[in-house]
């Protein structure tokens, strides 16, 4: 397939690739990972360069444009969409590192796959010129195709004592590692999003030079314009919600196609498509997804406009981003569940795309990045109270 990477054709590239991705969905799920040909196809389509600055050869798309690409890929396959989301959005994490490190990541071109975990599951022990990294991190999606792996660890002294930051919490560092320094443990055996290859990774006594370490919370990033002007932790949830939206829309497409093909429910006297209950649920689900899409893109547009105008993002702004991601994802879980329910007995087979999308959306809904606690934070702020969690 001949492709280009200009924004005007990025979605066209994905539309052209979608049938091939959809045809491989069952195999991707069975393998527990995307294949090398699929990954190469995504790279050719420009999926991993879309947020990279033009100065580094990227397309420098807006958040809204990137969300549209992620949603479309996820409509073909949720696991593939998730890996596109991870590989493209982690650019903002790289922006937290020093300028020279950012330049090194993209020195060979913009089509870079950055993966990792922000959970502080490891340790960083200071040594002359850098840190020694140890630890094990779960949920590292796309790790088999990584160009770079980001981990986060607690800074410890040589005797293992944890250092405290200025806020009294443990001092933590992000570290940027070569895939050669990271061991992949075969742990990704799940009910949903099985094709993401989100295995645990392990690092043992790896030296990481000073310039490839930085502070994620409270640090000063080297990049501050465009996508980097948006609070990095808060914006990641928007990208997750785009995966949910594409998955839910695909589930609705699946069940309406099933109904139009003449499916007749057991003990039913009418075809599924003739059922007023089905028609009501489909109509309601369609409108729910329209509402979810409108909310996601309206929030993204407001965020992008604020970033472009140089505005400061308050705690309430960040909380609203996170609550938006949670709300959109919850609506998508409900929509996919409704579609799956109307699939009846045919939807429980391993070969059913409805079954796969239902399990994928349930797995996505379990992610901490779209949890209900963000409603709590938003509610506390609306009530004039101090929220318990502010690292958003």
From TrEMBL:
Keyword list, A-Z: Oxidoreductase
Keyword Oxidoreductase applies: yes
Protein name: Acyl-CoA dehydrogenase family protein
InterPro entries documented for this protein: Acyl-CoA_DH_C (IPR013107), Acyl-CoA_Oxase/DH_mid-dom_sf (IPR046373), AcylCo_DH-like_C (IPR036250), AcylCoA_DH/ox_N (IPR013786), AcylCoA_DH/ox_N_sf (IPR037069), AcylCoA_DH/oxidase_NM_dom_sf (IPR009100)
Acyl-CoA dehydrogenase C-terminal domain: residues covered: 239-370
Domain Acyl-CoA dehydrogenase/oxidase N-terminal: 17-91
The species this protein was found in: Streptomyces lonegramiae
Keyword Lipoprotein: no
Coiled-coil region(s): none
């Amino acid at each position: 397939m001949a492709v280009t990477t200009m924004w005007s054709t990025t979605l066209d590239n994905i539309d052209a690739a979608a049938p091939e991705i959809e045809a491989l969905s069952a195999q991707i799920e069975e393998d527990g990972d995307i294949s090398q040909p699929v990954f190469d196809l995504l790279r050719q389509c420009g999926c991993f360069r879309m947020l990279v600055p033009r100065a580094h050869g990227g397309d420098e798309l807006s958040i809204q444009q990137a969300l549209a690409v992620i949603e479309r890929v996820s409509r073909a396959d949720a696991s593939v969409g998730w890996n596109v989301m991870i590989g493209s959005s982690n650019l903002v994490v790289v922006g937290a590192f020093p300028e020279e490190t950012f330049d090194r990541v993209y020195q060979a071109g913009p089509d870079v796959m950055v993966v990792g975990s922000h959970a502080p599951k490891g340790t960083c022990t200071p040594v002359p010129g850098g840190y020694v990294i140890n630890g094990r991190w779960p949920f590292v999606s796309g790790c088999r195709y990584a160009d770079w792996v980001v981990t986060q660890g607690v800074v410890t002294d040589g005797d293992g004592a944890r250092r405290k930051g200025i806020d009294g919490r443990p001092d933590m560092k992000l570290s940027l590692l070569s895939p050669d320094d990271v061991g992949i443990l075969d742990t990704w055996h799940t009910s949903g999003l099985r094709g993401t290859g989100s295995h645990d990774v392990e690092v043992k006594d790896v030296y990481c030079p000073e310039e490839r370490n930085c502070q994620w919370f409270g640090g000063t990033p080297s990049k501050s314009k465009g996508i980097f002007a948006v609070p990095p932790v808060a914006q990641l949830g928007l990208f997750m919600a785009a995966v949910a939206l594409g998955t839910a829309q695909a589930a609705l497409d699946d069940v309406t196609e099933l109904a139009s093909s003449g499916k007749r429910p057991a003990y039913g006297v009418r075809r599924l498509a003739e059922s007023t209950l089905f028609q009501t649920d489909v109509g309601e689900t369609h409108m729910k997804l329209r509402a979810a899409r409108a909310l996601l893109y309206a929030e993204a547009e407001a965020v992008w406009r604020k970033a472009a105008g140089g505005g400061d993002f308050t705690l309430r702004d960040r909380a609203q981003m996170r609550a938006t991601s949670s709300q959109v994802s919850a609506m998508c879980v409900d929509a996919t569940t409704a579609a799956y329910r109307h699939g009846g007995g045919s939807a429980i087979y391993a070969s059913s795309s409805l079954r796969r999308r239902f399990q994928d959306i349930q797995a996505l809904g379990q992610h901490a990045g779209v949890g209900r606690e963000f409603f709590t934070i938003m509610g506390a702020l609306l009530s004039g109270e101090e929220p318990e969690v502010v690292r958003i």
